Amino acid sequence: MIAVAKQRRDPEEEAMGNGGPVRRRHLLRELKRLRGAVGLSQDEVSSQMGWDRGKIHRLEGGRLQRIKASDVIALCRLYQVTEEETENLAEIARESRQKSWWYRYKNVFAGPFIGLEAEASAIYEYSASIVPGLLQTEDYMVALMESSAGLISTQDEKSKRVEARLERQRSLMERTDPARLWMIIDEAALRRQVGGTDVMRRQIAHLVDVNQRPNIDLQVLPFDAGAHAAAGFQFSILVFSETDSIVYIEADQDGLYLEEEEQIARYRLVFDRLQASAISVERTNGLLASLTS
After folding, report:
1. Which of 2, 45, 98, 163 has its CA 20 to 30 A from that of 193?
2. CA-based angle 115:117:123, to the nearest 5?
3. Which residues form the HTH cro/C1-type domain (predicted)?
4. What is the pLDDT of residues 41-53, one digit of tens each?
5. Domains and CATH numbers, the chain
């Protein structure tokens, strides 16, 4: 392995991985677009701003935890942006420095997924092995924590994770404009006895209840569907607007984020095929009811 020397950074510039919530992503895309519009390279911007060569690269790549409004204003002046647009972008930078509810659980949620999910207007998800996190009951969550086989070491940590997941559900489900949710669950996730018979009976009854909500559609992908388009993995499509979506593929710790149009189109097609292979929402309710009897 080749050792790479680490450059000392300003404390305000700790890396955060794959970016942040939607308005922050808009800010970064705009700054990159504006730089391109005036024909400046990253090196040229760094030279004129008096920054180290890596700072503009980290900024545009979403790897700065906090973006200073003063930096945004200085960049906008370099890019010859109007005062109105400069102030709009600077305000996004100021807002990005405010701590949201999930900051209390920064040791629980890895990466930016929770922040992105919280701002989604629609979520399309396929879950292969367990009930989707947004639809889990507290007992089901506890059973998952108890089966972590030492990966979650203390009872306090388990309780913190359950608390964080419940807060995640409330923040999304109880907001004034709840997101549109379309969930496809593999039948295996319903048959697996997480926590035992009573826990699963309550969990499945909860799925029946949430499937009555106008903003939620739940379908089951049955065993007899055979091989299907998402065999071997599960994913979520987060939609923010007609022109802005991402795909999240879950993995250990953080996951993989896909933002290219071709990638998003591919996973939309996969989800469409899963919908076609799954049983209808109405038949799903019947199947779920049969599993609780």
Report:
1. 163
2. 170
3. 31-86
4. 999 999 999 999 8
5. 13-98 (1.10.260.40), 108-292 (3.30.870)
